[in-house]
Amino acid sequence: MKLIKQLLVAGLFVAAASSCKKELFEVDYNLDPNAPPSDLYLNNATAQQINALGVGLQSVMRAGFVDFTRNAAAVGREVIFSASTDNRYFTELLGTNTAALGGANDPTGIFNGYYSSYSQTRRRAEQFITAAKNTNSITAAQKSSVEGFAKTVQAFVTLNLALMQGKNGIRETFSDYLTPGDLLKPGKFGTYATALALCKKYADDGLTALNAAGTTFPFTINSGFAGFSSVADFRKFNRAIAARIAMHQADWAGVLSALNGSFLDLTGNLGVGPRLIFSTAPNDFTNGLFHVANSSGAPYVVFNDVIADAEAGDRRMFGAGAKVGQRLDANGVPNPRQSGAFTSTHEVRMYASNVASASIIRNEELVLMYAEAQAQLNATGLAKTAIDLVRANAGLPAYSGALTTAALVDEVLKQRRYSLFNEGHRWFDMRRYNRLASVRPSGLIGTITFVVFEAMARPDAEVQWDLLNP
Amino acid sequence: MQGKLPGAQISANSGAPGGGFSVRLRGVSSINQSSEPLYIIDGVYVNNAQNATGAGTGPFSGATGQTAGTQDQAPNRLADLNPADIENIEVLKGSSAAAIYGTRANAGVIIITTKKGKAGKTQVSVGQDVGIVRALNLIGMHQTPWNVDKINKGIWLVPNSTMASLFAANGSGAQTTDYEKLVYGNTGVVSSTRVSMSGGSENARFFAAASHWNETGIQKRTGYRRTSLRLNADFKPAKFWDVSFSSNYLNTSSDRSFSGNDNNGVSLGYNLAYLPNWLQLKPTNGVYPENPLTGQNVLEIVDKTINNEKVNRFIGAITSNLYMLRTDKNTLKFAVQSGLDFSQQENVVFMSPDIQYQQQRANPGASRFTSTRAYNTNIQGFLVYNLLVNKFNLTTSAGLTRLEFNSRSQWFQAEGLPPGTSNPNNGLVQLSNLFNNRSRDDGRVIQQEVNWDDKVIANVGYRWDKSSANGDANQLYGAPKASLAVNVANFDFWKLKPLNVFKLRVAYGQTQNPANFGGIFTSMVPAAIGGGTGFVTPTSLGNTTIKPETAKELEFGADFALFSGRFGAEFTYYDKRVTDFIDVFNLSPGTGVSSFSVFNVGDFKNNGVEIGLNGDVLRMKKLRWNANINWWQNRTEVTRMVIPEKAVAATGFGAFGTQRQRVGSSPTAWYGTPNVNGAPTRYEDAQPKWQLSWSNNLRILNDFEFSFLLHHSHKNFNSSLNQQLTDEGGTSPDWSNLNKDGVPVGVARQLGQPGITTRQFIQDATFTKLREVSLYYTLPKKFLEAGPLKGLQQVRVGVSGQNLFIWTNYYGYDPEAANFGNRPTIAPVDLLSFPAARRMYFHLNVNF
């Protein structure tokens, strides 16, 4: 009797245990319950998946935008992100600690975000090209259009990366972006010149692909590219970026030839150009350069020198609709902002909300590149005409200075300072012409010495990588 | 437990009510996975997760720029449990002891047994505690004097001229407010009520308990509430069969407010640091004056914001022993143990639109509702055979185990909330997120024990584990264990009778820890623009070749007892090596891939010594004094790495110090500026050089029992931003003292000033704490035999205190605080965390 009972109880447990084993729905633990596996998109993608990759790439074109602009504007002494609870934006970033940090910002610190963002977008563009090649769901012309689009994006983001890293150079070669093993063997760092040559190659390869790309893209183009969404119009954007690259290479003939294929319009609206758009939708980006007017939390405030150096009546700096405005308190009394050693009477007013769009490149910049190239090539009359177009647009009288290359270049740089204010140009303009030493404010201020960086630090992760993989 | 257990480093993440804590047994067990021990309560593998609440994200304190993160100041789930139900705690500190628990036991195992019923007349016990809570230590930020000269010499959040006119407009310091005291200087009240019953027959026994804990914090509108119901029952349906049930329902609620890192002026410590005592911020008619400096009125945060957490949790287990054979010489039993832990955690973080900093946001008014449901189960079955031959006791066991983890965390957040509601449905900008987590571990165990007349005890065993978190879910990873203990004093040749225990022991064991969930997946990432949703390839790749990290521990020890156990001593040395430890493998960021999310990257080791002395110092008729002294130390060193040297994730802020993984160095050591040839400078270690605890129990006149516990932690270093914050805000008590160059120290010490490096921020956090003091009085029996108390079994009253005193030179609220929560490498980063609390109670307990 006892034995029967024992067997019964034991049998019960075995049955209970085996019922646990055979579940009605066996869970597949090899499947990510949170997102689709990337293999599904990179091999034999459907037309729908190609569209999703195209939309995704446009989305991440905005990655790095805030970091890049914020860093470049601070180092170029345009704008301070006056974070009330983090003074590194107006100490470390303005060069107070270069001696201890090895020459620039902290390689392990908070100012390296742009580096990963741009590198990631570059790779994602490459993978988009690969996904298009690895599928039969789109035509050969469509594949070419994907390549043209993606290479143009690569040219745009890689240039920003190269500008920030300057003399440090960037990693240029990757044997294959897709094989994990090869991620362990990235190419060595090149020089600034080879980095720019790589950017030019991205743009030129993009153009070649776009020339074989039919008329439309096989994915939705966002409204920021209104006017640039057909293959033919997008080609003009490609050339605008190519012109910007040539300018940094000081290849003035190259600038003019690229501008020739771009949307440069010496008589038209200076505001025309593709834009980065923002929204508060899930997985979308908001414009991190927005701040509420006159706020005391973390406003973007302007170096006083920028205002002081502006010509009276410059609509870009003064009056309604200007890019900056005077900070006021609730009673309308001037309310300057202190950021460590710096007092700012004005703040940035470029973005009306956190979904306001931002220019990628526009006719105004093309006109100024045209002027600079013509000045450099001694076509001073053509340069002056272009400069006057920009001056008139800003409410300023025609240029009355000397018609020499040197004077006209100075004038172009001045117009660029205000036309492209807080868009990540000033610092690099000063560097292009070896004028970093004259960037103000810098040097000893109070008890602290401020150094204008020549380039952002190479991130510590890269330094450590090369130490381990010589 | 804090300070009592040699080899353990236990630290509170913050002093906020219901606050979490972190336990490290024998140093660091992982760099990037969990270093928390495994907790097993009555056979249930309990959930000790620390779930994100969103309190640290953009619309709230803004500590992190991401939408979720480690800076939420959230408690870990073990904090839910009711300590009053605990009968016994057994701690298996190292892999040598914990080996049989195999997977997930790398950081040791803490086995908690709750109270069981006793057969006989039903015993009823009723207890009531009342207590008060005060801040252990305040900085005195708002006793710092101000004057025009100070304002001229400082660097403030507004221009000096504006600061000067604010000073004048606010009465030039004639009227000051101690805001720190106003915020953290309150007295909290604790009330705890318990009822328990125990009884039954030989074949059916029960223990039932109900308790309610209610406390208010040192800050207004903070507090913690816990209701616990427990029913434990033991049955003997047949002579050869016993079954035990254990069940516990818990309901907790905590209001924690905001502390720690911050970018919005929301965290109170942070905000207080930048608040001069002359600024008038007290509300009039419900209107809070705006703070022109930090952009947020600190009192408004105290009075109007919500950071609440509610938990409903059920923990249940069933244990069964079926004896198939039971004779004098042989027993064979089939033991089954199964447990479940279900918890539903609900967090609400809310900022109404009229709050000052919210008005400066794009869409004022924000709330986030988070719900985390976790369901973990475990089952194990063992066959245990015991054989007694001559003086040999042989036990053979073999079994199977399975652990399953399943959780889902969802949050719904809105910004742009209209006044009068916290429901995110009403918000303008809505965000939501859902995350599933599931994994399963299976194990097989065999073990053989030999006990020769308590003279020699040997044990060998082997365990194989597989886990769905491994790259190959079907691969079994083996882990051996072996131990030998020799009771020298039990042998016949032993003549030194006063030394009646002399035991030598050696043990070796291995345990494993699989990668965190998700480490094997390479999945697409959603990215939207212009109303369309797209996907981009991930920047963090999965690794399908990941193996578990393995801890191998060799331990030597000796135990002594003198005079029938009146004095005892224990010495242990251990060498614990963690091989193939799992970490994020940061790739060259220039490749566009940030990392492999998990990778077996190298090895590290912990070496430590633990010494315990205890004894009845006095054994007099009217006074018995038992004292216990523990001293321990641990050293950790990385011995191999296949990846580049790097900062340990989430362990600090750049120049303020971060921990670093470097071969030949401790992963808990701090690094920072100056960078010499690109290499950061090494500073001291976050791990203490050594720790000492001294606990005492005195029995006076039979009826009084007095206990106290002192704990000393020696040369443990924190990355502390406390001084920096109060210097920037002008609230350091010594701000105006001049240094040798005639500059106020409050200016000269700030980052960015000449000569200031990370040295300034790596601070010695050595402390001695009087952790516990208690005095109990048990009413003598004669009062219970007659008179009004007749019929009561026992009446006990007492007073006690926790964290009564601290001796430390550390600048801040608590040398044990950790901004990033439970990090594997401890990482005590202090940004004026919630102050530690001093607690004092009155106790009354009656049994009848």
What does this protein structure show overall?
The complex is a heterodimer of chains A (470) and B (848). Chain A is mainly α. Chain A has 17 helices and ten strands. Chain A has a two-stranded antiparallel ribbon. A two-stranded antiparallel sheet of chain A has the order 2-8. In chain A, helix 7 packs parallel to helix 10, helix 10 (231-248) runs antiparallel to helix 11 (252-260) and helix 11 runs antiparallel to helix 13. In chain B, 7% of the residues lie in helices and 51% in strands. In chain B, a hairpin with a 3-residue loop joins strand 12 (306-326) and strand 13 (330-351).
Topology:
The complex is a heterodimer of chains A (470) and B (848).
Chain A: H1 2-21, H2 39-42, H3 47-60, H4 65-75, E1 79-81, H5 98-101, H6 113-133, H7 140-165, H8 180-183, H9 192-211, H10 231-248, H11 252-260, E2 275-276, E3 300-302, H12 304-308, E4 324-326, E5 337-339, E6 342-344, E7 346-348, E8 358-359, H13 363-376, H14 380-393, H15 405-419, H16 426-432, E9 443-445, E10 448-450, H17 460-468
Antiparallel strand pairs in A: 1-3, 2-8, 4-7, 5-6, 9-10
Helix pairs in contact in A: 3-6, 6-7, 7-9, 7-10, 9-10, 10-11, 11-13, 13-14, 13-15, 14-15
Chain B: E1 8-12, E2 21-25, E3 38-41, E4 44-45, E5 86-92, H1 95-98, E6 109-114, E7 120-135, H2 148-153, H3 160-169, H4 179-184, E8 188-201, E9 204-216, E10 223-238, E11 241-255, H5 268-273, H6 298-304, E12 306-326, E13 330-351, H7 356-359, E14 366-389, E15 392-415, E16 429-452, E17 456-467, E18 477-487, E19 499-513, E20 525-529, E21 532-536, E22 540-541, E23 549-562, E24 567-586, E25 595-619, E26 623-641, E27 646-647, E28 658-661, E29 669-676, E30 679-685, E31 690-700, E32 704-714, E33 717-720, H8 722-729, H9 745-748, E34 762-764, E35 767-778, H10 781-785, E36 794-808, E37 829-830, E38 837-847
Parallel strand pairs in B: 3-6, 22-25, 33-37
Antiparallel strand pairs in B: 1-2, 3-4, 5-6, 7-8, 7-38, 8-9, 9-10, 10-11, 11-12, 12-13, 13-14, 14-15, 15-16, 16-17, 17-18, 18-19, 19-23, 20-21, 23-24, 24-25, 25-26, 26-31, 27-28, 28-29, 29-30, 31-32, 32-35, 33-34, 35-36, 36-38
